[in-house]
Amino acid sequence: FLMERKTHIKINRKEVILAKLRKSCSCTPQKLKNFVMDFFPVLRWLPKYQCKEYIWGDVMSGLVIGIILVPQAIAYSLLAGLKPIYSLYTSFFANIIYFLMGTSRHVSVGIFSLISLMVGQVVDRELLLAGFDLNDDAPPASGDGSLQNDSLSNITAFNLTIAGINAECGKECYAIGIATALTFMAGVYQVLMGIFRLGFVSMYLSESVLDGFATGASLTILTAQVKYLIGIKIPRSQGQGMLVITWINIFRNISQANLCDVITSAICIVVLVTAKELGDRYKHKLKFPLPTELVVIVVATLVSHYGKLNEVYASSVSGAIPTGFIPPKVPEFSLMLRVAVDALPIAIVSFVFTVSLSEMFAKKYAYTIRANQEMFAVGFCNIIPSFFHSFATSAALAKTLVKTSTGCQTQISGVISAMVVLLVLLFLAPLFYSLQKCVLACIIIVSLRGALRKFQDVPARYHANKVDTLVWVVTMSASALVSTEVGLLVGIVFSMLCIIVRTQRPRTALLGQIQDTSFYEDDLEYENLSTVPKVKIFRFEAPLYYANRNYFLKSLYRLTNLDPNLEAARRKKYEKKEKQHLKKGNHRTANGLGIGETTLQLVPKQIDFQALVVDCSSISFLDTTGVNTLKEILKDYKNLNISVLLACCNPSVIDSLKRGGYFGRDFGCMQEMLFYSIHNAVLFAKEQK
């Protein structure tokens, strides 16, 4: 039987688009109000803020995150190749802007190690091209706190007016100019993606790709910090193969290691790791995480200052960190053109991490977020701060987990964190002058524990899905051994290739009947299935399209043990020889058989079926090549007096077959060719003569 299809009213797409445009372009007071409220979600939830219920949790989580942010911001400035003050600016402005525009109640947006690394790689490359020396181990400027102080070794004769910067601009000035231009472009990309609703791009970054990218980038971050751990002075490697080149330079210069830095690093790592492990073990008993990083920084700074480690042992220190804010400045347009391509992967990674974390915590705490608004929020967290000497930001998992564990209820906690950073910016920043860089490197390395522990999950990942494990390994290797941007691109392309290959060579099977039922399953996978006499049932577990057409035919011919084209050619050959013998008056054939015996030989013994049922339940769509392939097997098997029956086709496949002329012009034979279950097709085949 054939089910009657519903008649769908044809939609005039032009009218629909015009109606949407008219609705979007119209402006009423209510619509303007809704637009403002949607663009600044804080206007919706802040008037409903339950102060007595939420304020304590928000204040506590804000203070804890602020205390964590300060040492992390100073440490991550090493990754970005910038001065610590710029990391503090980034943390301050990102929290304020996300408070106004974000839809997640819990995520912590600010400085993030992977984004800092990607920014730092672009900054290093542009500094090299401009003729600057990347060696950042020169003695720090003494003390006046001026941001314009550059050591003489960092002044270059390169004509910086070509790049849109005046000739008096030194290394630090040029570096932050590159970083702000890069950040501005990343924010513009994110806003444009929000306007054109391109959030679907994040779907192509699978969990395996993101995990592999994060792990590979973590290895790069770890490698970049080793020279600070042991206090050696080696050039900052740049470009592809940075990880290998850096390790070669480290081993070549290992004899120059600074004993003071090595001892300090060993002590700091032991203290930090021990505190982290104890915190993880007793986190249910602790009301808030231990501020270990802050304690380590304070103690290390005091020891370095009063022990004069920089003067006596030549230990590298952070140097002067000025207070206050630098006057805002528009990012240089000419520099934007130089870094426009580099900003795209930063924009995508920043958005994907922010949205994925927002969705994860929204699901956990039973509320909803708007992914498109998240894209606008993180975009403006990059655009606006770029005018205030800040660099790219993203949501960070570690700080978000801390926020939720300390009672965060809303983004009020982000404002509290920003106030803590502001306090450091205005008053406390100069106190970190004597802080050793090896201490900052220890904080960065210990913060990578989560990403590096992904190596422990490889056996379980491999057991769960071998293809996903391969994607993880390829992405991680490319990110670490080539570069982070190339690694991300390789991961995306390789994961897509895996999907294509899996559809090109999908599972195929001949089905047998489950005894005493109307159900059929793979004969190779299940025991006690009975074959259906005179009927072959073939299953193809993928869409049928141009890329897997040949595999479909080869699998069908192999499993049924019959190639209709070869069989037809063999029959023609026999017929031709038969005619030749008859013309000669010989009633014996070439095989020495009689005419009647020859007729029997024309039907090969291996053809033990009279009907082929194709289970289309796993075929989600057909393209033109797929339709033509089914028409081809229909014709070829018909020449051998074998009928081809289709079962379990979805409506889109049926429509494709109709448009392709599979059922003929008037669809008159459709009920004899198409069945809604395999069992119906089998019963029909048995009734045929």
Strand share of the residues?
5-15%
Rg on CA atoms, Å: 34 Å
What's the total count of β strands?
9
Shape call: elongated
Major sheet, described briefly? 7 strands, mixed
Percent range for helical residues?
55-70%
Low-confidence stretches: 137-167, 598-605
Counted by DSSP, the helix tally is 27
Our count of domains comes out at: 2
Please describe the structure with a list of short key phrases separated by commas or semicolons:
689 residues, mainly alpha, Transcription Regulator spoIIAA, 2 domains, seven-stranded mixed beta sheet, two-stranded antiparallel ribbon, 27 helices, transmembrane, Sulfate transporter, transmembrane helix, STAS_dom
Give a written overview of the molecule.
This protein is mainly α. The protein folds into 2 domains: 52-134 and 170-501, no CATH class; 508-570 and 605-687, STAS domain (Transcription Regulator spoIIAA), CATH 3.30.750. The protein has 27 helices and 9 strands. It has helices spanning 13-25, 29-39, 42-45, 51-80, 84-101, 113-129, 171-195, 207-230, 242-252, 259-281, 292-307, 309-313, 333-364, 371-386, 397-405, 412-428, 437-447, 449-452, 458-464, 466-481, 484-504, 549-560, 564-583, 595-602, 624-638, 651-659, 678-687; strands at residues 109-110, 394-395, 508-514, 520-522, 529-530, 534-540, 609-615, 643-647, 674-675. The strands form 2 sheets. Strands 3, 4, 5, 6, 7, 8 and 9 form a 7-stranded mixed β-sheet that branches. Strand 3 (508-514) and strand 4 (520-522) form a beta hairpin. Helix 5 packs antiparallel against helix 16, helix 19 (458-464) crosses helix 20 (466-481) and helix 20 packs antiparallel against helix 21. It is elongated. 41% of the residues are buried.
